Amino acid sequence: MSAISYSDVNADILRTLERPKPAYFLLLIGFVTAFAIGVISWAIQIDVGLGLSGISHPIGWGFYITNFVFWIGIGHAGTLISAVFFLTRAPWRAPVYRAAEAMTVFAVMTAGLFPLIHIGRVWYGYWLIPYPNQRMLWTNFKSPLMWDVFAVTTYLTISVTFFMLGLIPDLASMRDSARGIRKFLYSSLALGWNYSYQQWLHYARGYLILAAFAAPLVFSVHSIVSWDFAMAMIPGWHTTIFAPYFVAGAIFSGLAMVITIMVPLRVVFDLKKYVTDHVLQSLARVILFTSFIVGYSYCTEFFIAYYSGVNFERAIFYFRPFGEPGSGLPFYPEGQMGFAQIAFFIMFFCNVISPLPLWRWKVRNNAIALFIISILINIGMWFERFNIVVSSLSHDFNPTLWGTYIPTPVECGITLGSFGFFFTMFLLFTRAMPTLAIAEVKEMLTPPYRQANHDHVPWREYATERSEDKD
Amino acid sequence: MADGIRRRDLFKVIAAGGATTAAIAACADKPEKLIPYLLPPENIEFVPGMPLDYATTCMECPANCGMVVKTREARAIKAEGNPDHPINQGALCMRGQASVQTHYNPARLQTSMQRDGETWKQIPWDAAETAFANAIKAVGNKSQIVYMTGNASGTRGGFLDKWLSAMGASPKLVLDPLGQHNIKAANQLTFRRAEIPQYRIDQATLLVNFGAEFLETWLNPVENNRLYTTMHAYDDATKRKGRFVQVGPHVALTGANADHWIKAKPGSEPLIVLALAREVLSRTHGRAVGADRDRLTSYLEPYTLERAATESGAEAEALRKLDDDFAKAEPGLALAGGNLVATTEGTQFQIAVNLLNYVAGNVGRTVLFGASRQIDLSSSHAEVEAVVKRMQAGEVKLLIVDGANPLYHLPASSQIAGALDKVPTIVSLSSAWDETTSKAHLVLPGATFLERWGDAFPQRGVYSLVQPVMATYYPDVKAAEDTLLSVSAKLGDATFKATPTYRDYLRQAWQQVQKEVGASGDFEAFWRTSLQKGGVFRTVSFSSSVRLNPDALSGKPGVAKIAGEGLVLLPTVSLRHRDGRGASNPWLQEICDPVSQVVWGSWADINPVTAKKMGIAHGDMLRVKSPMGEVELPAYLHYGVHEDAIAIPMGEGHTHSGRNADGYGINVLDLLPNAADPQSGEFAYLTTRVQVERTGKPGYLVQLDHSPRQLGRGIIQTQTVEQARAGENTEEHDPEEMKHGHPYFDFYPLREDQTPGYHHTYRWGMTIDTERCTGCSACVAACYAENNLAIVGKTRVGLGREMPWLTIERFIEGEGDSFKALMQPMLCQQCGNAGCEPVCPVYATYHNQEGLNAQIYNRCVGTRYCSNNCPYKVRRFNWFNYEWEAPLNMQLNPDVTVRSKGVMEKCTFCVQRIARARRTANGEGRDLRDGEVTPACVQTCPTKALTFGNLADPNSAVSKKAMRGRNEQDKRVRQYEVFPSLKQHPAITYLRKVTFEPINQEA
Fold first, then answer.
1. Which ipTM was obtained for this model?
2. From residue B585, how far is each of A159, B501, B725, B811 by CA, in Å?
3. What are the tens digits of pLDDT across the range B62-85?
4. Is A143–B637 a contact, with Cβ atoms under 8 angstroms apart?
5. How far is B558 from chain A (nearest CA, A)?
6. How far is residue B883's CA from residue B886's CA, in Å, rounded to a whole number?
7. What residues contact residue B561 under an 8 Å CB cut-off, 6+ apart?
8. What is the end-to-end Cα distance of chain B in Å, rounded?
């Protein structure tokens, strides 16, 4: 491993930007098509009305808010890896953080679409932005939705800034070898980087400061998103546990998405020597940890519902796993399985049971196993949000006005489109920017000519399998 | 028709009524075209934007309630009860509220038409009248002309008779499958009074009902509702409450209101009635019957309680208790009606009930004769059948239908379809498409009752006028009476020479009325006053001493024979469509039946025990087969139906009545034999058994309710009459709260809305007395009418997208025969500390200084967060741009925004009415008075269950009922708010239902 040289890094990583294989285009066409389906579905929905989605009375929020929370959650891994793990000096972050950050930016962009998709009159979406206007109207800062607007836009701003800052040295090296329009683009984005010592000094300071700035956002954004629910009084939403529960869930799902992306990426671009099994298994450990927080939160919710003695709370937590409450009436079958129970069991299996094999080092070191588990976690976390959003609304205070949820083609199309958008953006990114941070990977390497004098270099620590990787 | 547009005439008409300001105006001339304003009328009293109200009479059913129709810019927008009218006293039922939709029915006939093979050819009106006249001329034997109408109220009946006799035609037929001939025939036999008596339900202390759906459609339901709650509702002042026992095989809305339901086998009820009579007679030693005692005793001898209990399957204990109560009741009242008396022995049944009332001394106290009630003017089924036979024999050459729909309203087994085919010429004067009109050869569209003249005499002393409240909506539409008059003129008939229009004829008739009521003076003045008031109303006392006719004791009623195999078919009268005439009004389709909560279609009530035996689940598609026909409809599992019966509501299953009626549900008459009670000639529709089987297909049953249980959540609360009398507030308080000594203790300091002075001048609030609410759903229809609520259709209701701001919630407590269906209105609670307000990011919903949760539709971006956070779930979202199929859009209230897609909407206590009243008050430099503002729901409530007013005024009616003041709260007995633990501080206070037996609310 220590045979990797600086030039290897440049060659390996910049190679990913060369003309791709046909498979890339096939994939791109697939995702663009999915995205197009989403756009068309949305256009139809705007034209005809929100009734085309499965949302109804009393379930005012459905797939769209589920998707919103899901994508915001996905967007947590990047900043966590790049900022929090940077501050905590976790050395294995270097090869994955660039892709994770890109994923964050695209995930937050995707998420940001959903509040617009879900509102009834999207053409007045700008009314949610507080700015002095001729309409003499102001926004309601008491509303958690307003907090959301700020939380998400702040997060997006910081993520993009952080992402672009980290890219500067790499953009400069690409600029040096690029031609034509690419050269112009990279030059503009590299902001005149000339590798000087001064610039490196400022760059490192700036990066550290931004990291310190971004780190709390990892926790604040999803806390605020959770308050969309926790501040409302719907049983199943109105709990104090929501902020930490959502943050843990977000990290959980975000890291799973990093694995989902990195595993094929390192195969396709032949980057196994950088994104080693050790890196993946480190991610897996954090996943296992957050899985336990999430599982613990599930149990806490049930306990608190029981312990509070509140009729409404108990009813919703009975409903989620077991279905309709007993009525003794023959025309109202109890325990009927519906959308909520399916969602609950998928959620519980995927998020609590499926990560358990990660206790085994063999599983953690097996990229295919990790990939499968990460997909399961992604599904599970989507259903967790669905479970929170929809099942709580479907069985709230007034039993005669309870409801059920029937998804429609339009909202499935828009959901598909969101995945299409995300992966299209990511695929374009892999062609336009280095997916691994060249400069930081180089930092990890043993400097040339000094190998002999360095028995203990960070790279070794990072790259070699260590005894504690095994059980 | 005039060729030009006589605009000035129209304006004259609109402004006629003259002397009245915004109160009640009258229509003076027949306007000919409906046109928009180009120039404002010169009459200073007409102000654009101000409503003009016209008093008229509702013609939706034969009960003839007084009505005030609000018009805006010369179009009718809302029907309300006429407060001066002695029978309905300002209230209307849901069908009355929906009468404006009958008027703006998209399936209305728009022009005169002639059949051209399979298609229709539009012809000029004059040509159509000539064709009509020629058709009459062409009939050689004039008695082969038959006239069928749906309405013969007031002067109209006599007019039709006169016209028909002038033509030499057969006497008119008035079609109504729900006649009351049994009552009339039975009274003739029992008391020699062939009339419908006045039932003073309010005077009774015990009401025993055998199947009369008196809270739904029977006689005058609006009046019945009022009288019933007067008798039955717990009175906080006197602490009295009457008892209501329902006996029979089925529980619909009326039965659901009963304190006790005694389940009896269908057809066996006369035995119970007579057994009760026998016991009452022996207990009271014939006090009430005098000389008839011995005769009655021997007649009633075989009808023992034991026999009744055995044959009816009712519990002997319950019957004994009922009998005990009935003997003690001071006075009691027994009613019979609906499907139970629609047997071939219905008259015998009514005689039995008469005997029961007679021996208990109720006749003269709660059953009064001499009222001359004209609630049923229909021809008997026997008469109709005779004509159908003539038609089959080819002895009818010309059939004129005018609001009558024999093809739908007669059972298919009467061979009416074949009979109609044999009539060479059918002329329809109906106002809208229906099954019979679709078979007609010549159509001269009639006017609706909002466009024509008429009158009704629902009972002695009540002379109610019908006047056009607007021009005919379509130019080529003419009141049937006027068509008849022009035709008679065309034929050169001189009978009506003095009265070329029906208005003239009516005025002539009313000169007689003037004499009858003894009004002196100028006829013009009398006429004008009558028009303004909606008629002439005199209080008359009618004493009614009647003697028992010994001939009445000749019958030997037993268990009615119901032929066939399988379950007894109980056709029930629909609360919403009555016999089917309201089915094309989308409001009536979309407002749920309160007991079943079903919308848009038919269902079959079947007992869960029977269903289990037959393997039928709720919502399964059933095939119901009788020897006469078969239908398919979904099963509805309902405890309130006898195990041996299946109940199917009437009124659905239209085929040619417009798209709001066609294809929804089935017509239960298709299953019925063509039978009649031989004594009265009444149509007998409880005469057959049906085979029921599963088809294996899922039925499409759309219900508004989800969970039928309230799961101990205290939404509809009850307390026993003992608790109420003892002044015991049964509200369950959180023990944590009670530690602080006050049930309304709040952890947080006084909120703004509770701070004195936070609400300026007004804090609008409402009380809903669930004890008075019968679930009649008139308020729901009123809300639809007033607030431009969208109709979304069956599929969308099935997805939970119905749009009512006010719903009647129904919860079922208990199981089996002792189940209780509790109902109450649920609407926006206008919370002082509302969950919806803080979560709106754009302030589209906010708390106004009068305490309303205002909703600014223009400001709403549609996040739906407010709806999510509303614990009462009373906000509705516009999922689409909803369509008002023309001309239903003409009914829209201009004071209320029509909401577009993507916007949340909700009840605002009819803020437009508050604003209008406030403007008037401001103009007069004063505050609003108590009772000056009434939201549409409150206005139309027949039982006065809703009270609206200013909670900030401690002397207002609503404050006195709500008892919300800090000092009053400890004195509360029945008052409660829904979900008090959520601290929403709702402005609506409910008053608990009071029951004789405790209802266990912990499911």
1. 0.90
2. 58, 30, 44, 27
3. 888 999 999 988 889 999 999 999
4. no
5. 35
6. 9
7. B267, B344
8. 67
